[in-house]
Design a protein that fits this description.
Membrane topology: Multi-pass membrane protein
CATH topology of the largest domain: Growth Hormone, Chain: A
Largest sheet: 2 strands, parallel
Radius of gyration: 22 Å
GO cellular component, one term: plasma membrane
Number of helices: 17
Oligomer: single chain
GO molecular function, one term: transmembrane transporter activity
Order of helices and strands: EHHHHHHHEHHHHHHHHHH
Mean pLDDT: 82
Number of strands: 2
Keywords: Antibiotic resistance, Cell membrane, Membrane, Transmembrane, Transmembrane helix, Transport
Low-confidence stretches: 1-9, 488-511
Main location: membrane
CATH architecture of the largest domain: Up-down Bundle
CATH superfamily of the largest domain: MFS general substrate transporter like domains
């Protein structure tokens, strides 16, 4: 593979656009998997006899393995070669998906989900870092990352539509089996067309203490937020997980600052542009993931939509994301500074979210939901595109995998935090509303109405928090990110670390 998998540095890869098709397909599969299983969960739970207390593990097993191993996966991509890591990740993901679809009990289901997370952690950073090293021209890079950003942002909503179709017209097992053709096509295509630049490997020995500390720290953090959602913030184990996460991640930073070949070179995250991107992106994902969950429940429980109809209701958000990413973001990326896309993008998304705080039981879809989701999608798509591109811009090729892993880590941890934090806020507001109003409900139908009103009150309370989080993301993007527009032809580090950085005033942090 090494003979055909490399090309000379500095020379644009002739097959880069074909490669983008297969990289995008793999990314779509990983993002789909985050939401597609949610719609299938009630059916799978019933078939496999999973208890209510254990059902969260279908989602949590994947999130823990994926979130915990991302940095390790990114480093493996730098060490082992991105193409090889990418193809291996796809093959493993397909096998894990087959096991999930064929599951006969809860242990097999949880194990397959964890295995999906392990191979997803190899696949996701390898995919993003392949784009980073294959697209060196600023305009081409903008187009490539526009497509990638649209998939990264909109794929979750596509998962809701596909999950609804498969669950309603076939059965829940197909939400797993559908990954297999995706993986086979992407792996075969990648094997044939992807050629990595020479000199982009990081062959330093693996930082084992860093791997252990980062994995345990991230797993503790993700599990702490997941547990907080079901057991409350004051639960002893929840608090213990947060304390453990803080200690482990602090120890990780200390180790990384001292070892010769760190798992996560601190130069990757201390550069202010990348630091601002990881932070603002993580916050935006917190807001977005919580909203996916609330809108799904609102449409199905309050409005009585079927799973398929619910999926289609998210189409304006997908359309907005694709437009924002591939049209607005791509066209402006080489003309304006990234912060002038990300900051306003997050603010437009916040306005869309603000509209959704007006939800009531009888809210019109066309009057409130449609414009709210459209603005949210437009804003997020516009902001995601430069974020994905800038996160790996200026990084030496040998660090591209781990820099890409940090993007995925901020998204994954943001998703776990968003689901737990906003769910807790919603549940608390619902309980408070019902307690205050249930006394006046004398009939069964009035009590049911109060319960529904309480749920909607919970959703809108949480969405108000999400508005604030998006505004904070915009402020961070506007203040931290100070790189100029990438107006040159080649981006530093995009090939083999030997490109020229044009109109990016912040230098790459020296070794």
């Amino acid at each position: 593979m090494s003979e055909t998998a490399v090309k000379a540095p500095g020379v644009p890869d002739a097959g880069r656009w074909k490669a983008l098709v297969f990289i995008a397909l793999a990314q779509l599969m990983v993002v789909l998997d985050a939401t597609i299983v949610n719609i299938a969960l009630p059916s799978a739970q019933q078939d496999l006899g999973i208890s209510d207390g254990n059902r969260q593990w279908v989602v949590t097993a994947y999130a823990l393995a994926f979130g915990g191993l991302l940095l390790f996966g990114g480093r493996i991509a730098d060490l082992w070669g991105r193409k090889r890591t990418f193809v291996t990740g796809l093959a493993g993901f397909a096998v894990a998906s087959a096991l999930g679809g064929a599951a006969t009990n809860e242990a097999m289901m949880f194990g397959s989900r964890a295995l999906q997370g392990v191979f997803g952690a190899l696949l996701a950073p390898a995919a993003l870092s392949l784009l980073a090293v294959m697209f060196t021209d600023a305009k081409e890079r903008a187009k490539a990352f526009g497509i990638y950003g649209a998939i990264a942002g909109g794929g979750g909503a596509v998962g809701l539509i596909l999950g609804g179709f498969l669950t309603e017209y076939l059965n829940w097992r197909w939400t797993f089996f559908v990954n297999i053709p995706f993986a086979i096509v992407a792996a075969a295509g990648a094997y044939l067309v992807i050629r990595e630049p020479q000199g982009g490997r990081n062959r330093s020995p693996l930082d084992i203490p860093g791997v252990i500390l980062s994995t345990l720290g991230l797993v503790s953090l993700v599990y702490g937020f997941t547990r907080a959602e079901s057991n409350g913030w004051s639960d002893a184990l929840t608090v213990g997980m947060f304390v453990a996460a803080a200690v482990l991640l602090l120890a990780f930073v200390i180790v990384e600052s001292r070892v010769k070949a760190p798992l996560l070179p601190l130069r990757v995250i201390t550069e202010r542009n990348r630091g601002g991107i990881y932070l603002s992106l993580g916050l935006a994902i917190i807001a977005m993931f919580g909203l996916f969950l609330f809108l799904t429940y609102y449409l199905q429980v309050v409005k009585g939509y079927t799973p398929v109809k619910t999926g289609f209701a998210f189409l304006p958000m997908i359309a907005g994301m694709i437009t924002g990413s591939t049209q607005i973001g791509t066209r402006l990326m080489t003309r304006v500074a990234p912060r002038l896309l990300m900051g306003p993008g997050f603010l437009v998304a916040a306005v869309g979210m603000l509209l959704l705080t007006q939800l009531e039981i009888n809210t019109s879809y066309a009057g409130v939901l449609l414009p709210g989701m459209l603005l949210l999608g437009l804003g997020m798509g516009t902001a995601f595109m430069p974020a994905m591109s800038m996160a790996t811009m200026g990084v030496e090729a040998r660090d591209a995998g781990v820099a890409s892993a940090m993007v995925n880590t901020s998204q994954q941890v943001g998703g776990a935090i968003g689901t737990a934090l906003l769910n807790t806020i919603a549940a608390s507001a619902t309980t408070s509303y019902v307690a205050d109003h249930i006394g006046g409900a004398t009939s069964r139908s009035q009590q049911q109405l109060v319960q529904l009103q309480g749920q909607v009150q919970g959703y809108t309370s949480a969405i108000w928090f999400a508005v604030g989080i998006l505004v904070a993301a915009a402020v961070i993007a506007l203040t931290f990110i100070n790189a100029g527009r990438p107006g040159g032809t080649t981006v530093t580090g995009s090939a083999a670390g030997d490109g020229v950085e044009d109109e990016l005033p912040v230098p790459v942090v020296a070794h």
